[in-house]
Amino acid sequence: MRTWNNTKVADFILMGLTDSGEIQVTLSALFLLIYLITVLGNLGMILLIRMDLQLHTPMYFFLTHLSFIDLSYSSVITPKTLENLLTSTKNISFMSCFTQLFFFVLFAATECVLLSTMAYDRYVAICKPLQYPVIMSSRLCYSLLTGSYMTGLLDSSVNVLCISTLHFCNSNVHHFFCDISPILALSCTDTYGIEMMIFVLAGATLMMSLITIAMSYVSILSTIMKIKSTSGKQKAFSTCTSHLLGVTVFYGTMIFTYLKPKKSYSLGKDQVASVFYTIVIPMLNPLIYSLRNKEVKNAFFRVMQKRVPTRQLK
After folding, report:
1. Which parts of the chain are beta strand (E)?
2. Residue 53: is its pLDDT beyond 70?
3. How far, in Å, CA of 23 to CA of 11, rounded?
4. Mean pLDDT across 106-117
């Protein structure tokens, strides 16, 4: 952090998505709407799971934290993006920039591991249903959750500590938030070693999570194929469709953006992908897990039915 005093720039300037005033107004309105839906959707999911006792299971315990993570890393990015779109001030201090980078990587990496944890939970539920209550104990659930957050903390700490040692000759961040590749591009010193360290660490987190998900779903598919009845197969697979859809969307954009060298960074394409996984996906996840999940729909109606008689009595 002390190297900031030796850099040639005072702070960073977030160049944003566009210079067009009309497009900025349109994007700000769209992003504000998406953010409001994100907040309402994820908070609603958290409250619904906490209020309905039938959803107090390991699957929905992890889903609660997925909603919390989506809400958190969207809040790290979107408010500052809206400020930059609506005002002429694009500056962001070093401390604010690296704080944003730290929490963004923390929550994004945590979500990667949490999605693999949810895949393991589905594997146990479908492949070992009789042992499920014993295997997925409260102790194991909290251990897996802690491991997810610790992995995110390790990734974010290494990223920030490595990048903060660089000297910066340019202040113009060609992005709408402080992300890894745009910040590395501002350095006037060689970043190859730091770039490779970050690449390996991010790659290890993504690949280990993907391997866990792949192995879980290979076993799940094998078990489902052994079920004789068509309705049984559909019921078993229906518990996984929401998770599979969420994994595909999240990992697809993350791999496209991060698992490649800095030299292949494409401003336009990477910004579109970044908008998708930082602003859009946090909004989509509660919709994916609610609209495609009968248990969540039934829980919503149960909670509403309990509240309606209470209001009538008043």
Report:
1. 12-14, 91-92, 172-173
2. yes
3. 26
4. 95
Does position 123 have pLDDT exceeding 70, yes or no?
yes
Confidence at residue 102, expressed as pLDDT on a 0 to 100 scale: 96
Q: Give the integer Cα–Cα distance in Å for 140 and 25.
A: 47
- pTM value is 0.88
Distance CA 213, CA 282 (A): 20
Tokens of 124: 């146990």
Q: Output the six-digit token pair for 309.
A: 């008689």
Q: What average pLDDT does the segment 134-151 reach?
A: 96
Q: What's the N-to-C CA distance of the chain in angstroms? A: 59
Burial letters 226-236, b for 16+ CB under 10 A, else e: eeeeeeeeeeb
Q: How far apart are CA 96 and CA 101, in angstroms?
A: 9
**What's the chain's Rg over C-alpha atoms?**
22
Query: What tokens were used for 4?
Result: 């900031």
**Residue 308 confidence (pLDDT):** 59
Question: What is residue 173's three-state secondary structure?
Answer: strand
Tokens linked to 123: 């594997």
Which one, of 176, 184, 177, 186, lies nearest residue 159 by Cα?
A: 184
Q: Which amino acid appears at position 167 of this protein?
A: H
